[in-house]
Structures
1.
Amino acid sequence: MGASAHAGGCTCGDCPHGARTGHRRAVAEFLLKREEFASGLGLPAAVAHSASASRQWVSDELTQSAALVAERSRVEGEAWLGRLWLRTAVVVWAAVVTLLLVQSLTAIGAGWTTARTAGLIAALLVAVALTGAGYLHRARGGALAPVIGEDNRLSTSRAVAVSWVLFVVFAILVLVGRLAAASDHRERDALIAGLELARGAGIVTVLAVVCGIAVLVRRVVGLRVLSQRLQKVRAHRPRAADLLTDDSGRGSFTDVQYVVICTVALAFAAVRLARRPDQLPDLPWGLALLVLVSAATYVAGKYAEGGRPVILSVVRAREAGDLDAPIRNGDDIEIRGAGFVPPGAQTADRLSRMVVRIGPVHVHVPLVPVTGGFDNPTDTVLTVPVPADVEPGQTEVQVITAAGVETNRYVIEVSAD
């Protein structure tokens, strides 16, 4: 009976299916409402006679609908994370099965060796550890919990560092397994010599650098956010594309080159381990240096990205047929600048959080829908009315973005007549 209650079109939010269905329905209703308002439909007669009143009414309606979408999205994101731990466990054990198949196929003719057994046991130990850790953190994405950043996105630097850490742990476990199975003292001495720094200096250097990069990038991003030099908004849920894109979803050169080069180096190290399972993979210094250059480029990109939003000018918005005049109470002003919409804040619930401070009055930026999106606000232009509570004379204008970052103050003159 309980199972049938949550089947079909369940939107109760008590099960993953209900959360997903409820989010999809909320999004569909919001899009339908936005397109109707963009076409001039759905306006009540009480506000249809006034352009400013109808604009405010439409903005309020869309804001309420967007808030429902955001809440449904949050619930769906939490339910998705709760399901993710099982998926990561399946992927981990599928990798173990794949390793077993590859070892079985390559053992045909060559025979099964102690190194193959040690590799399989090492893979099983790593898989058990990842599965256990994933279960303990099942509410935060399972085994992926360590690579999910504070902004609820997959962190490129953490993912690269975790990949190298897991590989090095696997390589050491292989050597431990072979050492435990070795009966001859000369073989044991050779295996211990395989752990010497001269053999694994390259891979140890790369491991130290990528782990240091993961810590450094977290520190850099945190300080830049606190100093308002970088705008960050929380994502609804992590996506695999986060490893290769910026917060707005566009491909990032620094992230792509870092992931690609580290993946190639990791594949080379894995092949070296398969060929020489009696020592740490001897990563050539040329390849290690390539990884270091890629890491330096990635960190430089983190320092270069972002920037504070800025107001460049404020003018009186003039409609067709309107006379040129100074700014008065009730007039619309057009604020021109850059960085008003933070990366990843293009959704309606984030846009509705933008505020313009005009003197002592806080004005919420109205949402103006057009087909397929919004005409106001945009990243470079905002249009807001001057409230009647603003005193005539010089007053300051300041924009507060959805990320909570404030722009510079811009002085305008409000005319008394």
2.
Amino acid sequence: MGIDVGAVRADTPAVADLVHLNNAGSSLPPVPVVEAVVGHLRLEARVGGYEAAERAEGLVEGFYTAVARMLGARPEEVAFVESATRAWEAGFGAVRLEAGDRVLTTTSEYPSNALGLVKAARERGVRVEVVPDGPEGVVDLGALERELGRGGVRLVALNHMPTHNGLVNPVQEVGALCRAAGAVFLLDACQSVGQWDLDVERLGCDLLTGTGRKFLRGPRGTGFLYARAGADLVEPAVVDVSSAHWVGEGEYRVRADARRFESFERSVAGQIGLGVAVDYAVALGLERVRERVGALAEYARERLGQVAGVRVLDRGAVRSGIVTFAVRGVPAEHVRAHLAGARVNVSVARVWNQVWEPREGVDEAVRASVHYFNTEEEVEVLVREVKERQGRG
């Protein structure tokens, strides 16, 4: 059975008069998530923040169970953080890096991650090396295997799905190569979590980062870090009374589980809401989500590709729910603004942020990212409005 589109749209009231194709930016949370977040905020207003957290302890713990179930992990391998970027920074900061160590990444790495790698090269003396793309635009597995074979690679850090293109990197194969070479594998799953079924054992990653606001349809300001038990990691760069405890004057002990990456202060309502969002996605069936999102995205690429003057930019043999395109003679921001006026939400992917990737002849693109609650009729609205804007010149 597929997804009951009518039911999920009923859980998404905004679709009555809005075509939301910006799910790779921030999706529309379903009613159960909204109720969970607002309900806890109301509880805080009635009884106090600390007291509300005590009453909601079971719901908070449910977050760890939900994320672990989704990833095929254990609850003690999951940490709640404020964003995927915060999760990536915490995970990367715990990798045991020394001067001269090699770090491999891909051309399509997320700009914030790339900045962190460059900073580590400048301050810690590690060597950041970009593995080239293969013919289809994804990381070249042969080149990666050769670089791992040369030795000295401490870390492989790459994204599953880049933010500005529909390609999907072959991360399961990357994970197998990393395990064989003894390299730590840090996987940015910011765009894939919530639209694909992810199993950390199958993927072979040591660290995985995700966000709540995108395809998981959770609250903004929420994310998580998976840290494999037994991975070769050092203690977090920053600790507090939640992640460590005093054992004597001038001495402390860091927690052994993934919660060593957490901070005491966080949005309890957001954490509860993210747990509800994960349960919602898992209940739908992430393989079914992947099938529907993939089919809608391919339909959008096909229809946009039929419009004269529109160039679809997505690469890769396997592609995600992110659809990027350029309209000849019309800046991407102008297309976005026109669509916004027609109650169609998209965003602009600025390719110049991708410092290591070929430009493909454009500096920015329109990004339309579909989700399972979208419909073919909404794709047709997108195509019609793109034609309308193009006709204005």
